[in-house]
Backbone:
């Protein structure tokens, strides 16, 4: 059985929104990552992944996603406590508001970084660099 998680590669003004995860997070506490969270039971619904990313972005960093999130990729991994996770990443280019750590337990900091700053950041995990690289490929394919 898998946990389903979504993440948003939020792009605005040449930069991506990167968060520092809360130190007490069960998985990857204190690491840099995209904004995201787990799918919750909604009953019968459509666009459950998109709804999840919209909810999580609002809860964690106070931004409202306006445009339709675009699928980037899906991955799977095992958490620090042994849970298997399917992670679905979306590109979000239309957002409103100013990002801030709205959920202090989940987010310790918010940063707007260029793709190059992410790639060169000593504390950016490889999976984050890969996600930004794939987001850039999708964003610039037009």
Residues:
């Amino acid at each position: 059985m898998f946990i389903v998680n979504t993440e948003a590669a939020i792009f605005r003004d040449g930069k991506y929104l990167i968060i520092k995860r809360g130190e007490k997070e069960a998985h990857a506490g204190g690491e840099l990552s995209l904004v995201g969270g787990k799918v919750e039971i909604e009953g019968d619904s459509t666009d459950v992944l998109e709804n999840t990313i919209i909810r999580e972005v609002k809860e964690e960093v106070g931004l409202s996603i306006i445009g339709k999130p675009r699928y980037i990729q899906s991955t799977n991994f095992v958490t620090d406590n042994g849970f298997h996770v399917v992670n679905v990443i979306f590109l979000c280019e239309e957002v409103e508001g100013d990002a801030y750590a709205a959920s202090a337990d989940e987010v310790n900091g918010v940063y707007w970084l260029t793709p190059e700053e992410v790639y060169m950041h000593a504390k950016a995990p490889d999976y984050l660099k890969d996600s930004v690289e794939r987001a850039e490929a999708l964003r610039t394919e037009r």
